[in-house]
Amino acid sequence: MTKRVTSKDLGISIAEMLICSAIMALLFGSTLAALVAGKERAARSSDQIEMEEEAITAMSLLSEDLGESHFACVYSPNDQFLVFPQARDLAGTFTVETSGELVWGTLVSYRQVDLDGRSHLVRRVADVADEVGAPIDPEFFTPTPDAAFFNGLTTPQREMARGFRRLTVTPDEGSIGLELELELVSGQRTIGIVLGSSVWPRN
Question: Where do the structural domains in the chain lie, given as residue ranges?
Fold first, then answer.
């Protein structure tokens, strides 16, 4: 007696195979999309953390530098450039006469510089003729301590923060208000941070 062969005996039908393939493709696509989205979020989080760290480090050093300066001698012609005197030498050693008077022999600048197609905040120190007692006023210093002056120096500059937008300086009755803004493009999104501080120069 011959047995009749049915589709059940042949295994999975073509229709069932197509349905399974469609379901697998949907699952694979969803998993891949979730992985890509997770990777982009992780990259944005990493860039955000790095930017916050750079902003905090830059603001901390700037506040420390400015705290050793003189309120009346802080010069900021625009929100891309700041310069002020300091009673330290290029090695960072505090300089003072035996009489106790400070020796002002350096100018410290924080300014915008384009590096690798991206805006950076950089710090550079200039060695200038010593002034004993009264601090150097950069606004009336010769040669003018502008961006060209600091760009022409051979002393090393320190890159403080990427994605630099502005550094707003606001003098107010003995204190200096600072506001630093950074902005970076991460993937298809733009991330930014604005950090503020107040400093009371003590010399």
Answer: 42-199
